[in-house]
Amino acid sequence: MTKLILVRLSTSLLVILGSLVLVFIIIYLLPGDPVLQMLDPNTATPEDIANLRHQLGLDKSFVSQFLTYANQMLHGDFGKSILNSEPVLPKIIKHFPDTLALTLASSLISAAVGIFLGVLSAIHRNSWIDIVTRIVGLFGISMPSFWSGILLILIFSVHFGWFPAMGSDGWKTLVLPAFTLGIVGSGFIVRMVRNSMLEVINEQFILTLRSKGLSERLVMYRHALRNALIPAITMIGVLVGELMAGAVVIETVFSRQGIGRIVSDALMAKDLPVVQGVVFFSAIIYVLVNLLVDLSYSVIDPRVRRAH
Fold first, then answer.
1. What is the pTM of this model?
2. How far is Cα 232 from Cα 230, in angstroms, rounded to an integer?
3. Could you tell me the mean pLDDT of each successive run of 10 residues in the chain, 308 residues long?
4. Which helix (H) or strand (E) holds 73?
5. Is the dihedral of CA 168, 173, 179, 184 positive or negative?
């Protein structure tokens, strides 16, 4: 178990360092000059532009800029916003709980709906229940999140008036955005759980358990489902990152506060330090979530624990 943890921690650290390099390169190669965004083009002189570029370190070489950037980021200094000189990291930490609440709520909805429908579809294979469940899953995958978000607003906010359409104050404002993202994620989990369950059901140990006289409910929910959940947990770990990325669109549609909204506004204003900070912070969260998912395998499946 200790070896497993050390291996996963080492690979996670490498992924974080790789994401640090990629984030810098992508932002560096983006077109546009952030200095011209900060100065008034009608009054700024060439000397003003040169002085500000020197002050920000943008006149240095690529390698020098990267080393400075990496040193600051690894020491927790994510820089300051070009627009208002506000430190980036405190701004991210301030708004991250809103995005975290949205991501966790949508992940729970995705997992609960996806696992339930996936198991139901596998147990009733080739029946009308299976057909309806697969159509629901396909519907969830196919719908763009902004479209389903607007649809939910029209139905449950405008028509019924049950939930507010905008804002991030209170649990009621979380319901529609969480279901919007959760519907998308559940579609993928339905497919994964259904396929995994069908593979496990046909394995020899399931036939042995049935021959011993165990009830079908016990065989399905205690033994088959437990083995089928490992790929589903992998999918849920990946989905957390996808749902966090989807928050950029959903927080804009529902006018919610969060780091998705921050990066959306920063991209529009070409506020590169904020974009770099949010993307790197999200990469760290994504890696940590997948680390927890990897370690959870050893808890669910003793074969993984014995292999290490």
1. 0.75
2. 5
3. 75 84 81 70 75 77 84 81 82 87 87 87 85 84 81 88 82 87 83 84 78 76 75 74 75 82 79 83 82 72 60
4. helix 62-74
5. negative
